[in-house]
Every structure is written in structure tokens, then in C-alpha cells.
Queue: 2 jobs
Job 1
Amino acid sequence: MDWREAENFIRLHHAENPVAGPVEPRLREVLAEIDQTGTYTHTTGELTFGARVAWRNSNRCIGRLYWRSLQVRDRRHVDTADGVAEECVEHLRAATGRGRIRPAITVLAPDRPGERAPRILNDQLIRYAGYTREDGSVLGDPANAEITKRALRMGWRGEGTRFDVLPLVVEAKGALVLREVPHEAVLEVPLRHPAFPWFADLGLKWHAVPAISNMSLEIGGVAYPCAPFNGWYMGTEIGARNLADRDRYDQLPVVAERLGLDTSHERTLWRDQALVELNVAVLHSFAEDGVTITDHHTEARRFLTHLEREERSGRVCPADWSWIVPPLSGAATPVFHRYYDDVRLTPAYVHRPPVV
Ligand code: HEM
Ligand SMILES: N/C(=N/c1cccc(CO[C@@H]2CCNC2)c1)c1cccs1
């Protein structure tokens, strides 16, 4: 435990929240607790502020305009595998609404000296299974082939469709548990296109809520490795990556074929035309079902508004150009045409070392 990180965070909290009162008494309390126990306990106010600032500091996130509105579910007393799984399902229910998605984070028990925190092995709370077949091909999402094998080894059985929602795999107190995500906690959107009736026949769909569960929230020297957080999707994540990448659902050739495009040469830009129609379908389907989603043009404009506000507040807004610029029509969005400061600030969401 580095007490300097603790001190920096406590000072930041008091500087941005005068209502928290004088900083010295709280600093003395924190440093005394670190002396006695090797760590210290955030107040719920500090935890809430820390989770919101960690989002504000996320240099790869285009969606930071609403960083102050993050709902923080303080569940640090929950440290069993069953309890964690329960809280994840509750998180999905609270965040999903009936399509009006609310950005939220659930903070479970932190790492403490001699007490390893629980961990969720899934990358996200909702992921589609990827079944590896004899010939090496994958039915479903190839990105999740490894965790699908692990779940099958642990006795899980899916229905064998391309969109089987995986169970949660949670490790806590040396135990590994599998917990199905109840069907009614998983809102999905079947994909159709406003102009092409055949699109619905492709049988494509995607889940409404992206909820990251493989990152650790670090606040003032304390690590919360189990802190799943959700926002809403930007359409390109589904239409330009998850369904388009060759090593994901690889749908561009299929869409191009049905569009009647000439796929014999790259220079016909059949890939690009298929990409646009796939992304039109995603945005159209989510909007028609009343499920929150944002397009990359709107989100780019919002991000620059956020960045300008941050600079007016006298803060640096860290940003990583290579992640901020959308994977479709980059230069057609305003975030392409400028540079950013890619500094690393804390509090932060960091990638956890992989669980072996
Ligand atoms: C509310 C709507 C939000 C939108 C539209 C949004 C959008 C995005 C997008 C498009 C990415 C890049 C993902 C990729 O390329 O795979 C991203 C990255 C990220 N976002 Fe956001 N975001 C939102 C909310 C949030 C919230 C609530 C948090 C945390 C509290 C968050 C934290 C992050 C982090 C840490 C990354 C980088 C992940 C990594 O390094 O792997 N975002 N966001
Ligand atoms: N829209 C989102 N998108 C993502 C945000 C962070 C990470 C990811 C997934 O990143 C993976 C690793 C690199 N690309 C896929 C997606 C959100 C998820 C949770 C809150 S907002």
C-alpha cells in the first residue's frame, strides 16, 4: 500500500468536494488505518467520487460526457462467489430498465492483505458462447471460445445456438462457481434493416447492455478487482467490430452477398458498403425497440464537448486517439482531426492480470 497514492486521492476528493470538510483530519485517520492494517477503507462518498473520476480519467473512452451521473452500487461487504453472482444479476436488472439504460458500477470486496478479492472470469457480464468444433471452426462468438471451454468443463451445457448467453464464472475464497444469467435479466435486440426485408432472415441479434467485468478499479492505492461497470453501446462496437471482424461473427461477406454487391475485387468497396448497412441495421433496430444506443457521429461530438468542459475546468482530459476515433468513417467524425494528451491519471480502470 503506497500511502502517497492514498494521500493524493484524499486531497483530490476534498479539493473537488468542499462539502467533505477539512482534509487534515481524514488524512490522519487514513494514514493511521494504513499503519495498523496495511490498507484503509474508503467512505461511500470517496468510493462514489473515485469510481466517477476513474471513468473521467479513462483515456480510451469516447462516452465520458456523463461521468458525473454514474450510479455506484457499494457492495464491498459481498465477498462470496454466490454473493458476487447475485449482485451481477441485480446489476443487470438495475442497469437495463426496459431499454432506458443507466450507467452503473457495482463495487465488490477489495483486495486486502491476506484476503484475495473475488474475481469474475468473464470479460463482460453478458457474452455469447463460442463452441469450438472438430475442424477448429467456432459456432457463436470466437472471442469467447476459451471461457466457453472452461464452462463446458465445469458441467455447463448451452443450447448450441450462435447466441447462447454464457454463465458467469466467479472465483472467490478459493471456490469457482458457475451461475446462469436469468433470461429475463438479458435484454436483446433482433437485428433488422429499415430498407431490406431479407436482413431479418440473417438471424442476427445482440444484447442491449455492455457490462465490463475484467477490469480493476484502482482508487488511492486500493484495488477493487471485482467492479463490473456498464454504459450503453455505440453502434459501431456491434456493427463494425463484434459482427464484422473476421475473427468474430464475420458477417460482411454475408451482407454483401445479400446486397448483390460485386465481391470479386476489394476496389468495388463491397466491404465498406456492407459495413454501412450493417451499422444502419444496428442503430435502427435498437432505436425501434427503445433501447439506448448512440451513433459514432453523435458520440464524437459529445466527447469534444466533454473535452472542452474539462479544459475550461482547468483539468487535462486524457485521450488515446487510436481508441477514441471510431472504427467506421473515422475522418467523417470530428474526433479524428485533432491531437490529445494521452496521460495516465488515477483513479483508473485498469486491465487485471489474467486469472490462470
Ligand atoms: C454511457 C455510455 C458509454 C459509451 C457510449 C462508451 C463508449 C466506449 C467505447 C466505444 C469504448 C471503446 C471500446 C472498444 O473499442 O472496444 C469505451 C472504452 C472504455 N470505456 Fe466507455 N463508454 C460509456 C460509458 C462508460 C462507463 C460508465 C465506464 C466506466 C465507469 C466506461 C469506461 C471505459 C473504459 C475503462 C474503456 C477502455 C476499456 C479498455 O481499455 O479495454 N465507459 N467506451
Ligand atoms: N460501450 C461500452 N463499450 C466498451 C467499453 C469498455 C471496453 C469494451 C470492450 O473492450 C474490449 C477490449 C478491446 N475491445 C473490446 C467495450 C461500455 C462497456 C461498459 C461501459 S460502456
Job 2
Amino acid sequence: MNALVATNRNFKLAARLLGLDSKLEKSLLIPFREIKVECTIPKDDGSLASFVGFRVQHDNARGPMKGGIRYHPEVDPDEVNALAQLMTWKTAVANIPYGGAKGGIGCDPGKLSISELERLTRVFTQKIHDLIGIHTDVPAPDMGTGPQTMAWILDEYSKFHGYSTAVVTGKPIDLGGSLGRDAATGRGVLFATEALLNEYGKSISGQQFVIQGFGNVGSWAAQLIHESGGKIVAVSDITGALKNSKGLDIPSLLKHVKDNKGVKGFHGGDPIEPSSILVEDCDILIPAALGGVINKENANDIKAKFIIEAANHPTDPEADEILSKKGVVILPDIYANSGGVTVSYFEWVQNIQGFLWDEEKVNNELRTYMTKGFKGVKEMCKTHNCDLRMGAFTLGVNRVARATVLRGWEA
Ligand SMILES: NC(=O)C1=CN([C@@H]2O[C@H](COP(=O)(O)OP(=O)(O)OC[C@H]3O[C@@H](n4cnc5c(N)ncnc54)[C@H](O)[C@@H]3O)[C@@H](O)[C@H]2O)C=CC1
Ligand SMILES: O=C(O)CCC(=O)C(=O)O
């Protein structure tokens, strides 16, 4: 299902549960601003290449818009729109003073050299620099981007507006990045999983996990879950998939991935079909790659009892219905992966204050936010007699709706 159709459907269900006025509902759905830019760069061989970049700024009722920038061949306007909207509800669920935005460039970063990626990022920044800013819209990394991408954006933006560290988050530490941001989304996934399992009298230790995606989020989640006693029995990334029912040796796998740029070829597990990763035997499934991967085609075959959505919109609404009938509990993206944007917020606060927190403080604050977020979601589940996805959506949408009305923008 199209990502925007799916996201709008979840929003509308939440709006109905909250009894939102139809005019307010419409105004919350329409993005504040949609930017589409052409980015032409010289390739290393001297030829020219053009790419299309997007930044969708969805809502700013609760504060500056916030969200990552994705470099991936499948980036398209509807998906960026959906991801921007999800950021609005996510920052509200996390109760941090932001709205939502998302950006992306349709490109395959694996096929571009470092200098081509730098030129592309700088051209993209030249096209959008007037529309982002510390109190307007603050980008961060997402799939296919990372601290170096943020460093280039910061440098290019600063040529126009003066040196301004807080204009992006997820930066390298040497440029004002926060300790703990790199691990934050994975650490948030760990805290969210602990909060959920606690409801069922369970803990991470002894549970069997399967993780799809072994990039920033998937690999940190794997490392932290492994350190907490969880057994990771299968993983996949773009290079392949492997399993070991006795539990993968995660420290060795992390080293292999660093040296080989992917999980393929790791000797501590048996190769499996990448398409079968989501239906492998496990207690807890963590999608940490692309959207829409859990759908009506595979939902019936999923064996996990819990799904923790580390990726954004990994589950189609049709799959939600099938899984709910099977009794599978899904911890939704707008809560489960909110650790990244929460520590981005800590980074922005530190930059504005000109002060650096130690990592322990970052991680402790993150735990506090994730715990409060879970409580908030559960309360909405009780109030509206709904599942965790609608609990999170009603929590987020209600906070944004209240801010919108208070600011007198609902008409
Ligand atoms: N980086 C962050 O702080 C946050 C990321 N997310 C979401 O988490 C997900 C992963 O993001 P990152 O880890 O940052 O990206 P990344 O670029 O660091 O890693 C992506 C991983 O997914 C794998 N992958 C790509 N296509 C795949 C496929 N077809 N099958 C299996 N694996 C595939 C890649 O090989 C890589 O291991 C995305 O949905 C992103 O929007 C959500 C919140 C914050
Ligand atoms: O750290 C951020 O500002 C945004 C991270 C992000 O893109 C996401 O949560 O999906």
C-alpha cells in the first residue's frame, strides 16, 4: 500500500477516536510546505548527473519542524510526505517541542563516491538553505545518510547564514554532535522493548529476536539487545540474510559488517533467503530497514509474538488487521523509534546552550522520555479502547491538535 495512503488512514482513524472537528482534521493533514528541487552535480568522470531532492515540512504547531534526510533510490514524494507526517506525530508522542518534516534525494548512495555525495549534499543544501534553520526546520540523518552528511549540510548552510551548529543534528561529535546520538534510535528501541515486555512479565533476556536491516538502527539495536541477554537468531541487510538458532555472535558480526560493508559472508550463521527474514521463528521481530515490508502477502506467516517497529511505517494497515487477529502485539514506529529524534532534541538543546552533556546523562534522559512515552501511549489505549498504534496516534495527534487550536490556526 502507498505509504501516504496508509499514514493518512491511521491519522483519520485517530482523528475519529478523538472526535476531531473535520476542518481541524483537514488542516492537520495538509503539509505546511512541500519542496522539490533538482540537484545537478558533476560526477568524478566529468559527466553531469541530476537527482531530485525533497523536503516536506508537515507541521510546526508545537515547534520547529524536525526530521531526517534519506538517500535511497526509492525516495518518492508520497513517501517523504508520509514520513514528514509521521515525524509530526512522533515528536508529539515523545513530547519534545518540535513539529515534523522529512527530506530525501532519489539516489543510490552506494553507487556514488564520497566526493560525489559531498557535491550532491552541498547542492541540495544550496537549494533549501533559506527554508531550514534552528527555529524553522532542523534536518538529521535517516537511511543512507549519517554524521558526515550533516557536517556537509552544516558547512554549506553556514556559508549563507554564519556558523550555526544547531541547524542540523546527528552531527559528528567534533562539530557539536551529542554523545549518544549515534546509538540513540537503537537504544530507544531497547528501552521501548523493555517497557512493552515488562507489561507481559517478560524481559529481554532469553527472548529470541530477528532483525531486518543492519545499518545505524538495526546494528545498534542488535548490540544493545545482545548486551542485555537477548538472543539474535537472524539478521538481514541489503547484502543478504543469515540465521543461527543458537544466537548470532553479535560482536563478531559487527566487526564483519564493518570490514565487509554487509552481513553477507559471515561464517557464524547459515545464509537464508532475504525475503524469508520476516517470517523466521522468533519471539520478537524488529524491522529496521524499509517501509511497507510487513504486508498482506506475508502477515499471515509471521511467527513473532511482538513486532517492534524500528523502521518507519514497516507495517501496512492491512497487515495490522491480520496480525491483530493473530494476537501479535505491535509497538508502533512513532513511539518505538522515537529515541533518535529525542536525542536529536538533546543535541539541539546542548548546541543552543553551548554546553556538552556526558553520555550517561543523555542515556538516562532518553530512558526517562521513552518510559514516559510508553505510559502516555498506554493511557490513550485505555481511554480509547484501542491498540498501541492508535494509542500512539491519538496521543500525538491530540497534542498537535491542542497546540493548533491554542494558536488559533484551526480554521
Ligand atoms: N537513523 C535514525 O536515527 C532513525 C532511523 N529510523 C528508521 O530506521 C530505518 C533504518 O534507518 P538507518 O538504520 O538509519 O539506515 P541505514 O542506512 O543506516 O541502514 C539501513 C539498513 O537497511 C538495510 N536495507 C536496505 N534495504 C534493505 C532490504 N531491501 N532488505 C533488508 N535490508 C535492507 C541496509 O543494508 C542497511 O543495513 C529507516 O526506516 C529509518 O527511517 C527511524 C528513526 C530514526
Ligand atoms: O533525529 C531526527 O531529527 C529525526 C530522525 C528521523 O528521521 C526519524 O525519527 O525518523
